[in-house]
Specification:
By secondary structure, the protein is of the alpha/beta class. Helices cover about 45% and strands about 15% of the residues.
Length: about 280
């Protein structure tokens, strides 16, 4: 039997982008879907825009502002599908995104994700807990999850300190429970806007919240914690350098090398260190 896929689109003051996201969901070659847009307290005319353009083609739900995790959780609760797919309001799907993923979704897998920058050869890679704590390999808009997984482990963490990392925390939790895999297909378009909570300009908050996730999942595993924390400092250094905040970038790359000295032999870490020192773009 062909499963129903519930497409959940959380949005907050994204009227410039949300119709494009909805259109990309409606254009899917996999047709057995329901589209649920959860408006997290927008005041930019999102409700009127969606009602005028889509009517009963979508389910529109308005709620008071509570953050992206609360919007996704409400969407899950109001959905009917056996499969849940997430699409951020400023992102886009390729037309065969769902069809490709469902064709590769193994019977035992809890989650399958796809990215934008990938080797695009159609291979399926198992993503272990260890891989995930070192780097979030999934983007919200690329992920498809079985509803049964949420029944088993619960919904996204809505606490403030998990904002922008609640997705990473969820994928890690899923990796502890069952199989999560990455389909190497270029199936989504990520639009990183100034309003995006994962934009380089938000590096300070991201780093703080990422450390919360690492402390939660890596208590009692000091070596893996050091490797993972070093990776997060490296990412923050890159983001600060992109924003021309060189002093913060230098501090983060030095911390990356300090917490896990083996990275003195890592070309990426040393290369970024040299780039920051020489003030190169």
């Amino acid at each position: 039997m062909i499963p129903l896929v519930s497409v959940i689109i959380p949005t907050y003051n994204a009227s410039k982008y949300v119709c494009d996201a909805v259109e990309s969901a409606l254009a899917q070659t996999f047709e057995k879907i329901e589209i649920i847009v959860v408006d997290d307290g927008s005041n930019d005319g999102t409700a009127e825009l969606l009602n005028q353009n889509y009517g009963d083609q979508i389910t529109y739900i308005y709620k008071e502002n509570g953050g992206p995790a609360s919007a996704r959780n409400l969407g899950i609760k109001q959905s009917h599908g056996e499969i849940i797919a997430f699409l951020d309001a400023d992102d886009l799907w390729k037309p065969d995104k769902l069809e490709q993923q469902l064709a590769s979704f193994g019977e035992i897998s809890l989650l399958i994700g796809s990215g934008e920058k990938t080797k695009n050869d159609g291979s399926v890679e198992k993503i272990t807990f260890e891989k995930l704590v070192l780097k979030n390999r999934f983007t919200n808009s690329g992920v498809v999850v079985r509803r049964s997984a949420f029944v088993e482990i619960g919904l996204f963490n809505e606490r403030q300190e998990f904002i922008a990392v609640e997705d990473w925390d969820m994928w890690i939790r899923l990796s502890k429970t069952g199989e999560v895999v990455l389909l190497h297909r270029d199936l989504i378009t990520i639009r990183l806007t100034d309003e995006s909570i994962s934009a380089p300009s938000q590096a300070d908050k991201m780093l703080s919240n990422e450390r919360v996730v690492l402390r939660k999942h890596l208590a009692g595993r000091p070596i893996l914690y050091a490797r993972a924390l070093s990776a997060r400092y490296f990412s923050a250094a890159w983001a600060f350098n992109e924003c021309c905040e060189r002093s913060k970038a230098l501090l983060c790359i030095l911390l990356s090398l300090w917490v896990f000295p083996m990275n003195f032999f890592n070309r990426q870490h040393v290369g970024l260190f040299v780039k920051i020192i020489l003030c190169k773009e």
